[in-house]
Amino acid sequence: MQTSLRKFNLSQWLALLILIAGSAIVLVPLLWTVSTSLKTPAEVFGDSFFPQKWIWSNYSDAVRAIPFFLFLRNTLIILVPVMIGTVFTGALCAYGFARFNFRGKQTLFLILLATMMLPSQVTLIPTFLLFKQVGLTNSFLPLILPAFFGGLGGGAFNIFLIRQFMRGIPRELDESAFVDGANRWQIFIRIMAPLSKAPLIAVSIFTFMGVWNDFQGPLIYLNSNEKYTLALGLSMFKGMYNVEWNMLMAATILIMLPALILFFIAQKYFIEGISISSAVKG
Amino acid sequence: MNNTKSDRAGYLFILPWLLGLVIFTLGPMIFSLILSFSKWDVITGVESIQYVGLDNFKAIFHDPLFYQSLKVTFIFALVSVPLFQVASILIAVLLNMRSRGMKFFRLIYFMPSVIPAVATSMMWVMIFNPEYGILNEALGWFGIQGPAWLQDPNYALGALIVMGLWGIGNTIIIYLSGLQGVPEDLYEAGELDGAGIFRRFFSITLPMITPTIFFNLIMGIIGGFQYFTQAFVMTNGGPLNSTLFYNLYLYNKAFIEFDMGYASALSWILFIIILLFTLLVIRSSSFWVYYQGDDRD
């Protein structure tokens, strides 16, 4: 049911006009940031939207002035184990909730859902103090370890997402494997986990975004410059004497890019994930 | 497969989450509750935690900055939540039209929501800059002398709301999926009865998406209380505490002043406020939320 252009009536034209205006509002700030990142320092203060000449070297200067690759390395040191931990333990727990009938399961599942509503501030301070007591502050571990316990922030959303999907997998599949002598672990590794590829990819993507965007976590736990993540590092270079605005915008673009690229590759997961999260919590 | 022995294996599979629940949720909650009734400077050991009863809460209720942070957070929520809902519904209704290019528009509108908050903040610090920012320049074309935005206590909070409007893609998508759940025959019936576009919107669309509005309302209020990164990066609460969000104040108390007892008390007050609002919206929902398949009339 596609409407061709000549069938457009007045209200549809008006709608299109609003949509285009809205898109311009979304895109112009982004384009201006890109253009600023390619300007000379003098041009940044000028009136022109576009630079006279595109100065790509702003980018190489920026990654040197702001130790970009060091921050990138730090971010990856956190990101990789967090993704592994979240996906692996998330799938394990989801399987436990999806396929077993143990005592207290309903209650535990309700608690799981309830933890989604708990504001993170309540556990933030004591968790920080816990890591401080064991001498782990200013290390990456406080940002990594929780991922191996179902996922960051309790992992409730991830576990719920995977569990819903696993419940849709026909029971005959694991039952026949059980008859063939496979144990629960083998059923999980060989049947359930591979069949749950879709929610596992979704969880990986959300986890990537969560770690890449995380600001408050690194801010609280990482004190020394050489430990900073990209998100934290970028903000710390705001207004420093040796970092010009054009370079700062170049670094800003560099931090946006992986998130945007991932979004364009995997848009359907983003859009589905948002809809599911509203269905769960609403 | 239904024998109890093998079912008990379920505990093993959910063990990571169970442990996490104890170590990273329940344990900290209890500890935090104890802290909120105690005085403790973190430098000395755990043994110096001192029970002070309700002192933290009493101090909080006499703390002008506490009220300031509540005010900032509520103004932000009261202005931005309705504003974002109206804008999101408008865009979502338009995006729900059946015509070419909607997918493309959907991508554009959603894009800002995937950009890291720090990057968005840096970008808008630049945009709001009174001398060379693009916003005041654009306002200048219409002969409007723009304010100093983030440097002006009267405009800084407004600036953050404007910036928030830029990133409503998330909310738009939630409404869009709500709209796609509205049965087509309702519109057809409405059209047959001679209802125009606006009539159809207010009599069919709006009642059908009230559950979504309801969800977004709760999330919006909670979001106001969780607001941190943008305020920290862009204004750090200033100027003159005009953007001192609750969460930022809590952070300052805990991690700048290291007053962990006070900050823990603040975090429980935040928890209770969020809980109250959530319950309030849920209780009131039966008056105005329409769930399809409900017998209530």
From TrEMBL, chain A:
PROSITE patterns per UniProt: ABC_TM1
Chain ranges passing through the membrane: 12-32, 76-97, 109-131, 143-166, 187-212, 245-266
ABC transmembrane type-1 domain location: 72-266
Coiled coil regions, renumbered to chain: none
Localisation per UniProt entry: Cell membrane
Membrane topology: Multi-pass membrane protein
Record carries keyword Transport: yes
Gene3D superfamilies linked to this entry: MetI-like (1.10.3720.10)
Keyword Cell membrane attached: yes
UniProt name for this protein: Carbohydrate ABC transporter permease
The species this protein was found in: Paenibacillus motobuensis
TrEMBL record, chain B:
Keywords, ordered alphabetically: Cell membrane, Membrane, Transmembrane, Transmembrane helix, Transport
Gene3D superfamilies cross-referenced by the UniProt entry: MetI-like
Stretches assigned to coiled coil: none
UniProt xrefs under InterPro entries: ABC_transporter_permease, MetI-like, MetI-like_sf
Its membrane topology: Multi-pass membrane protein
ABC transmembrane type-1 domain residues: 70-281
Subcellular location: Cell membrane
Transmembrane annotation, as ranges: 12-35, 74-95, 107-127, 155-176, 208-228, 260-282
Protein family membership: Belongs to the binding-protein-dependent transport system permease family.
Protein name: Sugar ABC transporter permease
Organism of origin: Paenibacillus motobuensis
